[in-house]
């Protein structure tokens, strides 16, 4: 793999950039692999990357039905934070956040991780108490967060209307090292690194069936034929229900559309990420200048990558109330992604009823921020066959026992 | 220079002059002009700067496809960035400023990016700015951000108002060109209800500019006849200035009407967002002309041929005295003819095709215009405006055959049908080799709710580029000249706004970003504010070529709403200010406002948090209210509490399923506290249930629980136990409810008079109907404070008067209103739990020591099975206890109780957390409740709560009843 | 933006007049049930990419719950019917089979597939 | 005892249509699955027949509206509610039913004028051109539930009492002069 740097650009500029090599190869599948990861989203690619990097397992195929990064990884609002309430969530999201800090250097690919700070507004007394609880939990989890005053909120984000009138800002939970990243670059950077390790990323190849013998997985049927494997990782987000059905079990998952939109680009006016959960809206400004805005989820099962428009309206009226200056900006584009919502809204990183078949899903509306941590933990699970401490709580049997990992209790939503 | 022609201009009114400013410069135009036409008429060729390289940008198109000519419009509370000049109607006093430059449009420092362009190809930022690590956040990213973005961010709220409107029809026709008008008429003839939308302020589409005749009639005559015909029908509604922004599932179409953009401040809504439901959508949205990719095709003065024609015919504006036409199809010849007819020079038509024989080319030749077939532009000369072109053979590598001086270039690379709306909901496209464009595939349309085709396309939008019905062949010409070397390709713009060039797309392909979606995201092709209306097809043709593939195999990127950007204010609609959200008011709301209440939101209600007096902090006010309630009497507006009547032969049985306790055995006239859980077993609501008569119960819920619990009841009754005879009614709002609380409560009621509220007649946990002070009421003897307490329900229409009467009657006894925070403190002093504080969706009643409210005998209740699961039944769960800090201080809200050591992930172990913590003005010390592992067995232990500063607060474990343990105060 | 006909009101209702309620025909398992049954009742969802039977409430109308057969991949609605039934009506099954010949009535009230 | 006070105490606004809050109005929510006893009880209470699906039967100042297959809304003078409730209890004794006085739980508006429908068309996803005479439509007004029907050349709109101020705000916003739809 040729290294990327300023010097490489200068060198290439002289020959009109004709010398760049492919960021990743696009090979045909081999007959079999040591491990197959289904789904070349962020989580699948990170899983493969850490299989190689942490465990030396590189005879790996990543199978993707469309184009890599084209799932939710390529369509999310890119908020990265780790100020979660429950210990197991906080652990894996903080692991992920810390890996994001050095991701550009690790991958030699600028993923533009931008730790500009994330604030979650408290606009009711109940929310204040909820965020104070999270702040106390975070203090014990080793996560730097702070409950800040309305005045500090205003200083950090001058375009915010903190004086209501309906929901004056009473404070905010502030994570200064949270932020955003360039979502596509995360997928591309991992893909390039995986490919460089000799892994095969096989795009436009849909998994149609899972084969097993004696309760142990043997391979997958795909639109490019059968591909054998010793281990299978299913990392397909919204399509997890389909994959699980192929493997013969059911998941506590519903696939619903989550929407987002961007405004037309404007000059920088907002240097933090703001989430306003009372009114249901969140917004940040991308490096290109668009306001990136997250909408709501439909309450019905949906695989169309588009949602119902009234959620967009609800989000925008909440944001006009919170940021009156956006009223005269224009919505440029809106889209949807199919998110995988579990029974407790927390993910699964788990063994399954099928031997050597592992699942990673359920990241729902908030898994972009988890990508490196999730890949790290999933690689450990696949390599060792047993979960490590990061993954342990996220097993799929917790639903039977009632041991949920419920984040909604912290007055927050997941993004 | 670009200028106003002496004659013509079908859309302008030369008798109505209009003044406007651009960058402070005063300019003149006419009513009917677009802002773009006004700018061109005043020789303003340079109107902006591109996104990445800050290159000079001029007007290139005449409609919503315009990528360049965007301005900041208006100022202050009416400032609108990125306003498209080609679709902005000129009005007197319009103020526009150009964007994305510093210090000025003419001299822009950012243009150094242009000179460094070679070092900034597509995706360069992914390859650099990696080291040293902190530099990205602190140096590189801020620079990039400042250079990016287009218009200025407004700093104020919006001075204008917006609204929504619903409309319904059988057939919605989008686009009022010839095709749309005919479709609307045809649909109307069948008796269907028709709505016809046109984004422009006038009907007609391209025909008045492009066609002499329609259906054998002169075009203008045909149009006015058609307009009159449609206007006369009452089943047709025509909406001008209304852009269909998006087509959504089940025939839902969003359309944005620009009601008062051209008359700002006249009091009308600026925009109206239409939400249209239609059985069928017909899109007659026309076609958009494509640019040609030649070097320097982005220099101001290079325009689409159709746009040049539009400006000349519609507004009598010409971009230059000498215009070179370059094309691969016949339509551009019309431009040459129009210009020639207007007395302007057309030094040459460069046609990439080798053989050109159509009627239009013949007419051009006849008019004496030089037609060079097989020719192309090698490069355009000029910086901030065109000064000439170098000509070459299309077939070669760009060897210049001659140079032609000119002020403008009119280009046409063919036409792309506007298939956006067809595609929004999944309609699929076919590649049409004849016209080198994607056209709708009628076999794979977007589907309606019933599975029928939801959208149909007609006219140019369907690929029928000619009214005659015989589509002229348009051969593909994707680069000019065909064998252009890299130096030329570096200067061939695809996406003018985002500065994406032919070389960038080729680089993306070379680097393996082979999916069209990868190329889009890597190069940002088509991601600008025009969403690639001009660039997408050209870009993917280049990509297909670079991949050695075919265009249909490469495919398009996804078309997404909106078709043109929609103002966010319009999407928010009426929901702002006072009607941002419904504000629920109790009948006493105004009285509380008059009393100076500080409110807090509780769901959509607003409840008084406290009633501060002059000079008091909120905290002091709360303490005063608590003490007064304990010593005299307090009044609480409890109207928001949910009240649900449950009635029927099976009502008792039903409530026994709903509550953890037994309600069927509650005697008539009595009250009982109950808990409701969800099927998981988690506590979801609580409240007092009153038995009204043999088959009627009244269930009180929490304020935010009323609608939720009513819905929950109906859910079970309708979907699970539909054969049970139970009716429910949510009567929450029928009653105003006042809690009269404190030692003087009875005296207050006796002063009102009318019924016996003595201990004997109305003991604790009973209710009675009667009148008080002449108000019909129902009085419940229940207490959430531990005091002697009555909750009195009166009809809501008497609520305000009853509150006033209580206040009046209470004067002698020291009555004061108290708010929700006082309520919280009072209940915490008594160890009563609060839904939302002690519970958070993960807590079961058993955790809270509420086992007494759970029937052991019942075979089933909602949540029972859930609570039997191993984790919920575990003896290790955290359970509710009270805490007293050793130093009397208040435990911080949200604190955790630390335990020894750390877990496998290095996090500090915990063993519990606080759920309610207050300063008790009664006990004059901090009191707290919380959940603690094995809590009830640990009375007297000292535990440590963490603080966010890093220290701890020590507290002793005790029971939760801090005040009046024996309940002597409430049972008097 | 869906429209569904409320079978009680006989009215095409706008999605914004309705509240969705996820999978229909779930069988409730109470205290005597096995951990597996209870887990399946609470969590295991068919979540098909295709024909789905689901609950809706006409919450801004009559307040009644009804059921719908809808394709989650195209959003086509095959029909709606009152909630007070144990299984989808035959005419709706027939309609689905006509529109989706490959679809198998793999539906069973206990939350398990026959597929 | 004071006089009953409606939610907005009779507030009004004149724009391109006229908005008036009316009331207090007597309203009884009656739940019953139907049958002869119901027919008789409704007749006795408000003098109308049992309305068919989505209909409202209006007789003078009394009316009965179909709210759902087992729910009816009786409308009558406020002062008659008490007596009517008692009469209903008697008439339906032994029948499974629920009658609740909801007079004070509601706010009622009249929207009048030639363009009254345009005011409502901005707020409700209702096809007013197809709203039949005598049809009672339950829907939304922007973010809250509302029921409406055409009556006396205008519309009657019923919403919950607590959001009366919000609904008035919506109606005023929608009836602003100059914002007519046609
Ligand atoms: C609108 C929106 C906003 C969001 N905002 C945020 C946010 O701000 N912060 C945050 O942290 N998270 C956010 N999320 C969530 C986040 O995007 C996801 O959790 C995350 O991207 C999931 O990554 P993934 O790799 O698991 O899934 P994906 O990126 O969806 O990848 C799964 C891949 O599997 C492939 N696949 C599926 N089926 C098959 C098959 N049969 N064979 C082969 N391949 C298959 C898919 O094509 C896809 O590429 C948002 C999501 C959406 C939709
Ligand atoms: N010879 C050629 O190559 C060529 C190419 C293109 C068009 N034409 C000419 O175009 C005309 C074809 O007629 P037509 O009716 O199909 O197209 P048209 O371009 O005349 O009309 C389309 C109309 O739709 C409107 N529109 C587009 N998108 C809209 C939206 N989202 N919302 C509201 N309005 C929208 C446009 O403003 C325009 O008025 C003929 O005059 C034909 O000669 C010729
Ligand atoms: C953070 C973020 C920023 C985006 N910015 C833009 C943008 O500036 N212009 C644009 O056209 N689309 C933008 N998009 C939207 C994408 O074009 C695209 O709609 C989205 O990734 C979903 O893919 P799809 O529409 O191809 O299904 C952005 C998407 C994300 C996630
Ligand atoms: Zn209904």
Question: How do the helices and strands line up, and which of them pair or pack?
Answer:
The complex is a heterotetramer of chains A (415), B (972), C (115) and D (182).
Chain A: H1 6-14, E1 32-38, H2 42-55, E2 60-63, E3 79-80, H3 87-101, H4 103-107, E4 118-122, H5 125-141, E5 146-148, H6 150-156, E6 171-175, E7 179-180, H7 183-196, E8 200-202, E9 207-213, E10 216-222, E11 225-234, H8 240-247, E12 253-263, E13 273-276, E14 281-285, E15 291-301, H9 309-322, E16 330-342, E17 348-351, E18 357-361, H10 371-384, H11 398-401
Parallel strand pairs in A: 1-2, 1-11, 2-8, 4-13, 11-18
Antiparallel strand pairs in A: 3-7, 4-6, 5-6, 9-10, 10-11, 12-15, 12-16, 13-14, 14-15, 17-18
Helix pairs in contact in A: 2-7, 2-10, 3-10
Chain C: E1 3-6, E2 11-14, E3 19-23, H1 35-42, E4 51-57, E5 65-71, E6 77-82, H2 90-99
Antiparallel strand pairs in C: 1-2, 3-4, 4-5, 5-6
Chain D: E1 12-14, E2 18-22, E3 26-32, H1 36-46, E4 56-59, E5 62-68, E6 71-76, H2 81-91, E7 97-101, E8 106-112, H3 116-121, E9 137-141, E10 144-151, E11 154-160, H4 164-174
Bound molecules: flavin-adenine dinucleotide, nicotinamide-adenine-dinucleotide (NAD), flavin mononucleotide and zinc ion.
Nicotinamide-adenine-dinucleotide (NAD) is lined by residues 174-180, 197-200, 205-207, 210-211, 243-244, 284-287, 331, 415, 418, 459-461, 465-467, 472, 563 of chain B.
How would you portray this structure in words?
The complex is a heterotetramer of chains A (415), B (972), C (115) and D (182). The C terminus of chain A is likely disordered. In chain A, strands 1, 2, 8, 9, 10, 11, 17 and 18 form an eight-stranded mixed sheet that branches. Chain A has 415 residues and is α/β, with parallel strands linked by helices. Chain A has eleven helices and 18 strands. Chain A starts with 5 loop residues before the first helix and ends in a 14-residue tail after the last helix. Chain B is elongated and about 115 Å long. By secondary structure, chain C is an alpha+beta fold. Chain C is globular, with a radius of gyration of 14 Å. In chain C, the strands form two sheets. In chain C, strands 3-4-5-6 form a four-stranded antiparallel sheet, covered by helices on one side. Chain D has a single domain, classed as Gyrase A, domain 2 (2-Layer Sandwich). Chain D is globular, with a radius of gyration of 17 Å. The model of chain D has no long low-confidence stretch (mean pLDDT 97). The chains are: A alpha/beta (415), B alpha+beta (972), C alpha+beta (115), D alpha+beta (182). Chains A and B meet through helix 1, helix 3, helix 5, helix 7 and helix 9 of A and strand 7, helix 3, helix 4, helix 13 and helix 14 of B. Flavin mononucleotide (FMN) sits at the interface of chains A and B.
